[in-house]
Amino acid sequence: MHIVGLIRTPRQYETTGVGFPSRLTSPNIEFTQDLELRPETHSHMQSRVSQFAHILRTNDPPADLELAQIFSLLREVEIHISQPIHEEGDSWFHAAADDRLPTLRDALRGATSALRRMPAEIMTQIFYESLYFEVDDPLKTLWNVLDKNQTPWTLTGVSRRWREIAIAENRLWSSIIIDFPLQKFSSLPQPRLSSLIACLQRSGDHPLSISLTDRYNDGRQMFQHLLQHSKRWKCLKLEISASYFDILVSVKGKLPCLEFLYIKIETHAQMQMPLDCGAFEIAPRLQDVHLLHSFVGTVNIKLPWKQLQSLTVDSLTTLYASLKCTPQLSNLFCHFQLGRPTAITITELFNHRRQHSKIKTLVIDQATALDKLEFPSLIFLKVFSQVNEVDAIEHIIRFLSHSFCALETLVLSSTNIHSESEFDLLFNNTPFLRTLTMRYAEIDWDGFARVLTITPSRTPSVPRLESLTCFFVGHLPTSSKPDYALLLEMLQSRASPASDEKHGVSSLRSVALYPPPGVIIENRSSLVSSGMEVTVEKS
Q: Do residues 208 and 170 make contact, with C-beta atoms less than 8 angstroms apart?
């Protein structure tokens, strides 16, 4: 093996990009170490280093032959660094080695990294996974390919190979966010048309996820380019003014891939005539729709109602009008607080109950809106009660009673329950309940514990209850402090396997308490030993 001794004074030197001397002004001193290695000239070593400059100064991978040569050079450099100093002359070499050779060694090691030679298929998947997305929520699958300070643009600047892989992967360029600033003269940068065109080209024929926010019609030119690709639209989010309707009409019948639609129309009080939008009336794969600020009589969004399976609305009028034309609907989300105030009450809308036989999931932020509704197939109910809904639990119980459903999951937020009798009524109407969550409310915790405690003399409530989550952070009644010993007794009665056989109830398998009462923390180990998973959230 050849070893090179590069000796120079520390006064004058120039270096390459990896910190190795490119030109020496002091004499070269050749030497032979104890390992009987032949001396090598500086020019030969310098030549060997320079031939890898295209690799050491970039993040590109070496070819197979280059990789073997780099390993050989790396071995020699490591031997140089490890050699002891035997003579005074050697100190010149080690002065240079200590300063430069470790840098060269690190550069050579980096060039041999397996990451540089990882197969393109794996790199492609890593690139895709690096983008933030949630499969279960289309609104969170979007990343902004128009922003050159974000991925995937940043991936193209790492190396030539990364650029080739990133540009070739259509998926990375298939998410397009066009967000024009709320203020017309905002200092925020405007989306660039050239970036949009580049992304549309790189996305190939891959389905597109698009988000457009434009309240001042600044994005019409960019949207015209997107209209040409309507057959690739898969997920579409629009926050636009009604003036866009005249160009949207061109996509009618040209939406074969559209599965998700979020549309928020900015209307004005001075609008006299109702507006129709029939662009989305023909979309064979559309099943999930969000309609916000779309009021009956003001904006009429024509949709393939009969095929919808999930619907989100923000007004009572839209809710009741849609129930009669969505026979396949299974998921309903009502966010009335996001919409504009309406003076229309449920009684004024309908004098009879509106039933829907297939809705299985209901999320609603107004308990009073449950009146006049019947969902016999409901298995998941989440209610965000409002501050002024002091009798919210009564509306919920009445809705469950009329629906006569086999509810399995109930989430109550800001829903006050002040008495044991209210818990009795609630649980009598949810005999198949498996998961219960209560948070941010005024709760009679003692009454709650007594109703759920299994005793020989009382028929167990909600016998199938398996998961319980309680947030003790609401405004509790000032008249009494909760007796958490009753809560512990209830948990112990539902954790015992013996009680399952005797009373025919399921074991309570999971409990989460926030913040955890001290008595629960003290007895947690015994609950866990009985098979119950106990999560105590302290912060």
A: no
H or E element: which one contains 197? helix 193-202
pLDDT tens for 391-403 read 999 999 999 999 9
Beta strands in 174-303 (DSSP E): 175-179, 208-214, 233-241, 260-266, 275-277, 288-292, 299-301
Q: What pTM was computed for the model?
A: 0.74
* CA gap 18, 53 in Å, rounded: 8
For the chain, give every domain's residue range: 2-117, 118-308, 432-539
Q: Which two tokens stand for residue 536?
A: 């105590």
The interaxial angle of helices 484-495 and 445-452, nearest 10 deg, is 20
Q: Which two tokens stand for residue 323?
A: 């129930």
Cβ atoms within 10 Å, residue 496: 17
Each residue of 14-47: b (16+ CB within 10 Å) or e? eebebebbeebebeeeebebeeebeebebeebbe
Helical ranges in 31-170 per DSSP H: 42-50, 53-56, 64-82, 90-111, 120-130, 160-168
In the chain, how long is the greatest CA-to-CA distance?
105
What H or E segment, with its residue span, contains residue 380?
Answer: strand 380-384
